[in-house]
């Protein structure tokens, strides 16, 4: 048996690309890492494996804790982590979902080609940057009051549809049709609502972005056809989440859980894993608040997409409908959901925690939108702004191996602090434009440095492993044209 050891943690190779940390001591289940040798070296280079092993102590966790190929160190629970806990005997953990609740990605297709944008790159990047709010703090596409925020938290994209920021087709091509009906706006604090009040329709900062891309490769023509993708086509990728509202909500409930469920916390190896017991008042409140934040994030991305349509109308002089600017799919990658999965031959309702992991349901699954049910759920995997991104579809092995999940991006290999020491933002921008014809605009050079291509893993390798394991199958590859960041 092939084994590897990192800082005293031993992994045994179960099969190609599957490594297991055997159950021992107070671990409730084994832990698994899905990675090639090069990716495993990077995953083992920080605290990812320790955090993954710690996560196996969560009450009610089933089968195994899992780290995706893009995994890296997070707060308590690793980014790229998946953990499923029983909804009756387990727990729900805000730290295993993340501070940016429903951080996710959506891709909008167009009928424009790369030829249509050449010569307009600078005009387009300037127009997008001027019209799509980004950066730290406030400023959104719409100003809202307390009543409106409550409406968004309760209704998600239904609110956007009613207000003229969406069309029916947008909802039909979003995970859960853009609304979680378990949402409880009353469980979201006034402080969180106030932070979100003027951020509806904003990218935020950090690794969030809006990127116009061109389709460069098609790997499965039948699936690409179902998704409406073809070579040389322009698409738009939007990556952001629930902004300050989601961050405050996570903070609020971590503090509440620490105070009320200190006995459970005392049994966990890391307080950032703080969890509320299933069925408890706090578990129900947090789940309702989290679902409300999910609705906020879907609405946020919807408004950004609608504004992008308006920008394209001005730059290209055509109605967005004429350019066929339709949503391909929107999928969350920081989320906790009640789902039914088979465990040891028995169907059980579980809280599936995905933190930096994407839902990847295969063809035929009832929760895949009707438009894609015959081919499988679309998955969007962003690379760095100097590398390609990918569209995948839910693989046949995902339900068995990963509770219907795969990676969410390339995954960092360098901290933001280190990145700013290694890279200079202006040099990164110039190099991308001069060598790859990628136009980048951001609020600051520091943001560009933090997100330089060199701080990320090889997205091609991440996707190759996902495809080889059958959890997310390659459909198409895209490449950046213009990119705006906070």
Automatic annotation (TrEMBL):
Residues 181-200 are annotated as: Disordered. Its cofactor is Mn(2+). InterPro entries: RtcB, RtcB-like_sf. Mn(2+) 2 binds at residues 239, 333. Its EC number is 6.5.1.-. Mn(2+) 1 binds at residues 100, 208. Keywords: GTP-binding, Ligase, Manganese, Metal-binding, Nucleotide-binding. It is an enzyme of class 6 (ligase). GO terms for molecular function: GTP binding; metal ion binding; RNA ligase (GTP) activity. Binds 2 manganese ions per subunit. It comes from the Archaea. Pfam families: RtcB. GMP binds at residues 207-211, 333-334, 382-385, 389, 408-411, 485. Essential for tRNA splicing and maturation. Acts by directly joining spliced tRNA halves to mature-sized tRNAs. Joins RNA with 2',3'-cyclic-phosphate or 3'-phosphate ends to RNA with 5'-hydroxy ends. PANTHER family: RNA-SPLICING LIGASE RTCB HOMOLOG. Belongs to the RtcB family. This is tRNA-splicing ligase RtcB. It comes from Salinirubrum litoreum. The lineage of its organism: Archaea, Methanobacteriati, Methanobacteriota, Stenosarchaea group, Halobacteria. The gene is rtcB.
